[in-house]
Write a structure and sequence with these properties.
Elements: E1 2-8, H1 19-27, E2 30-35, H2 41-54, E3 61-66, H3 77-99, E4 105-110, H4 120-128, E5 133-138, H5 143-151, E6 162-166, H6 167-173, E7 181-185, E8 200-206, E9 214-219, H7 220-238, E10 243-249
Length: about 250
């Protein structure tokens, strides 16, 4: 039986690592690191740095693999994602079979936390169909926590509901019904611009938790242009950007 640890590593600050995460990293015989090309090498670089800082056993193998991209020829979104996950799982299986040797423990360092808008657990389910696998999750600090910490704000209003959603949902369905607060992730188009800005506040952060963290906040009607400009400049400077934002109605739903 192969033990697979999915280890949440936080959102870019090496000090986000928990003691449990450090223990799990050091228990691994094989650590898998995905790479996404030169433009996003910062993400792989952080994982490499964590391993260099934390690992105490030089015998632990750290193996990188190129992450495949989604096939644009598949028109249906869900089918495209499923095919992508299948391709990633196949690479995991090949890499584990090639490099695990006589070991029994594999670790994968997950950006943020494996539970929140992350597909590592779904990929692990696919791998378990092909390898004898038992999965354990080590929780990590999420981008939502990094966002609210960056702005020093509570996630919710008193007794107020919160919805965690995506840019696609905001574009297609508007502000979530019945919620005072919406946290929006996976939004490369700043989809809050499709909403009625009246009475809407925003707290936006790029590179949450990292050394180059950027945060802006205010009334949507007043700060939208600044967020758009700042985001574009940051992406041009770094070659990539990961951002997240919180929207809140001034009048409760």
């Amino acid at each position: 039986m192969i033990a697979l640890d999915l280890i949440g590593i936080g959102t870019g600050n090496p000090r986000h690592l928990t003691l449990q995460a450090i223990d799990a990293i050091n228990a691994a015989d094989l650590i898998l690191i995905p790479t996404k090309g030169a433009e996003k090498d910062d993400l792989a670089g952080l994982r490499r740095q964590i391993c260099a800082d934390v690992l105490t056993d030089p015998a632990t193998k750290v193996v990188e693999f190129a992450l495949p991209v989604r096939d644009p020829a598949i028109a249906d979104y869900r089918a495209r994602v499923d095919a992508w996950h299948d391709a990633i799982a196949a690479i995991w299986v090949e890499t584990i079979r090639t490099h695990l040797g006589g070991g029994t423990r594999v670790a994968f360092l997950v950006w943020g936390d494996p539970s929140l808008y992350d597909s590592t657990l779904r990929i692990a389910e696919r791998v378990a169909r092909l390898l004898p696998l038992k999965t354990r999750v080590i929780p990590g600090i999420t981008s939502i926590q990094a966002l609210t910490a960056a702005h020093a704000i509570p996630l919710n209003e008193i007794n107020g509901p919160v919805v965690v959603t995506t840019g696609r949902q905001i574009r297609d369905n508007g502000f979530p019904a019945g919620a005072d607060t919406a946290v929006v992730m996976l939004d490369g188009e700043l989809s809050f611009r499709t909403l009625d800005a009246e009475g809407l506040q925003i707290w936006w952060t790029g590179y949450a938790g990292m050394d180059n963290e950027i945060s802006l906040s205010g009334a949507v009607s007043e700060v939208t242009d600044k967020i758009v400009k700042t985001r574009a400049e940051a992406r041009a400077a770094h070659g990539w950007i990961m951002d997240i934002y919180l929207l809140r109605r001034s009048t409760p739903a």
